[in-house]
Amino acid sequence: MTFNKLLQYKFWKKRVAMPREQLQVLNALDTAKTQLYHFTAIVIAGMGFFTDAYDLFAISLVTKLLGRIYYHREGALKPGTLPPGVNSSVTAVALVGTLAGQLFFGWLGDKMGRKKVYGMTLAVMVICSLASGLSFGRERRSVMAGLCFFRFWLGFGIGGDYPLSATIMSEYANKKTRGAFIAAVFAMQGFGILASGIVALVVSAAFDHAFSAPSYATNALLSTPVQADYVWRIILMFGAIPAAMTYYWRMKMPETARYTALVAKNAKQAASDMARVLQVDIEAEEQKVETITQDKRNSFGLFSKAFLRRHGLHLLGTTSTWFLLDIAFYSQNLFQKDVFTAIGWIPPAATMNAIGEVFRVARAQTLIALCSTVPGYWFTVAFIDIIGRFAIQLMGFFFMTVFMFALAIPYHHWTLHDNRIGFIIIYSLTFFFANFGPNATTFVVPAEIFPARLRSTCHGISAAAGKAGAIVGAYGFLYASQSSDPKKTDAGYPPGIGIKNSLIVLGVINLLGMLFTFLVPEPNGKSLEELSGENEQDDDVEQTTSNRTVPV
């Protein structure tokens, strides 16, 4: 038997995607050394987030005071509290406004440009922050209606700051330290939370010293002095100051080169703006901009099959992880006071006067922010470009899950007086790993992985999903955390599942967040155009393969 070997080769040309040469103006941004303009952009964008966090979290410091002032009942054994519907509305209405603002301003940022819309959001925030401390009348119904009305529009302005700040910073940054710059903008949120606690401490201490009042148990009526009505107003209105201080500088920022070149298609303006910022000569490259923008690869819309194929799973990943994170994160933040009261870190309300209670709640929140929240944000800034977004997010969700279960399963153990410090330490660690984890990365990644013409919109959608989770957390935890014993619930609330079971639910939510993290790509070290596919071109590459047959 002889073997005749016949080798047959088939040659064909296959079209494959090859990277196109980067625009000079974008390459200059990607490779730029860290300069003063980077830090200027961080401060200008970051002060918006400072205000965002201050305004969103300051309300949790004054809700107990509002209950004492406007819902006092003669002869009651406990101080007045906001009814469930009012409490949830006051707490969550800004989140509803934020969700709407994220969707609207995110879309508008891609249509009109980042810079034009950026000033609008800040103006809305300043005006509504001031107005939220005012009221339409003296009756509680009008006060609460006015507060809810202005906090909704305050949230609307805050919502616009999310996609615009993230997009502007990502489009200004170099690719080596882009993650750290975007995370640094978001980290200003930690200082905003800290500042809300410090302002509340200072204001409440000053008023308590000037207008000394007995505890509720001693004299229910006198425990809430008339001047207490100024305390919550000052605390809420203070948030307008840092935002107003940065308005001028926001208006002076040039439009980002990526929007100007890739969306507005104005190569000359993009080159001129960035040459002034970077202080280098940059060629306009109008022909190259025209080629890129006319490429059909770079023209698909948000609701197209092409977007679904290229970015559908990415958008699912960014929306789902942000949604799940914010259920847990906002539940913890907005209702810290209830958790601290449940374990006895804040004394029973009847043993304090109204202003003294604000001081105690603010002190607890400030300590948590100082020891865990703020450090967590800046750990992310330090390590995000070293170990990557994916690893930080996965690690954060993992430890949040572990610590939630560590608090929930032996919950009775932590309520004992001798073990309260241990509870506070573990509770603080959940905040640390939320911020050195998904709370930062869910903000960073959507600003990196989508095309320039849809970047602000997709970030807005992702952020809005997060705020939907925050609303679920704010409303859900408010009711769920009530005791299962009807005799131990707050006035007007139905029995819930208790703090212990609520913490177990939050642990499960964090676990789901860890699983959905696997849908999110790793953008570390890549240019925005490389991540979004905007810089690809079709090229003919001759590829050779052999198909061997061996007949007998």
TrEMBL record:
One GO MF term: phosphate transmembrane transporter activity
Species of the source: Lactuca sativa (Garden lettuce)
Gene3D superfamilies linked: MFS general substrate transporter like domains
Name under which the protein is recorded: Major facilitator superfamily (MFS) profile domain-containing protein
Catalytic activity field: phosphate(in) + H(+)(in) = phosphate(out) + H(+)(out)
Family, similarity comment: Belongs to the major facilitator superfamily. Phosphate:H(+) symporter (TC 2.A.1.9) family.
Polar residues bias: start-end ranges: 543-552
Domain Major facilitator superfamily (MFS) profile as annotated: residue spans: 41-525
Keyword Signal: no
Signal peptide region: none
